[in-house]
Amino acid sequence: RDSTIGENLCLAVVGDVEHAEVMEAAEKHLQSIPAGKSVEFLPIRYSGSHVNVRDDDMGLCYTAIGFEAPAYGNADSLAMEAVRHICGQYDRSCGADARHGLVRAAYDAHQWDYNVYAYCFKPFAFYYGTAGLFGTYIISHNPSQEASFSYVSQDWHRIRHRCREADVDRAKCEMKAELALNTESTSGQVELMGKQLMTLGRAIPLHEMDQRIDNLHADFVRTAMDEYFYDTDPVYAEMGHCETELDYHVVRRMMYLPDLPDQ
To answer: Cβ contacts of residue 200 below 8 Å, gap of 6+?
Structure first.
């Protein structure tokens, strides 16, 4: 309730509209919102954690594992977005792959199916004003949790050690395509515009975002992963049939790996 004030409000409008009409409508429908004073929140302190909700009747284990990421306005957020696309995703329920499911990744994502690690995995990234969260969703059956966690951490370590320019180039193409798709609908446009206004103070034109994406290189990606991922405290949550859950310290050790053998 204290946060619903005029200073925290962002009104974004796209389309063939007159500015005067927008202002008139805003004054008419939003005048009941008090002006107030913006609440000053204490700085966020990130800490690793683990939560488990066991329900064997669900049959599968639903897991999210992640680590601290940069804030939205931080230049490293684009590098982490590139990591999200480099990791790719896999879903056995889709029929696009020649074997069993949809695979969209640059490095051995097919192993998720061949080794029966999981039914689905998908990276996620959330960026807020002062911090962020990067990680992966995993849906697996009970005995393969450790293998799934190990594969995810090894892939992150691979990106940190040996991210290639070819991987980044593919990620940049996907980032540009995703940005263009978000602007195809009015809801996507206003969401993007509102997020940029609230976090950066202005709406960034598409050509400027394209230029920022073009400036990404493998060195930037490796540096960002070294800063935010390597030897940090992870957060992970499990729900469902998670009888063989991993101890937090086991998952923590997976965040540290001196080097990877060439494969």
So the answer is: 72, 73
Token pair 């960034």 is found at 204
Which pLDDT tens digit goes with each residue over 34-59? 776 666 767 777 888 999 898 888 88
The model's pTM is 0.78
143: closest CA among 115, 117, 109, 113? 117
How far from 39 is each of 1, 24, 32, 72, 73, CA to CA, in Å? 11, 27, 19, 20, 20
**Distance of alpha carbon 219 from alpha carbon 159, whole angstroms:** 11
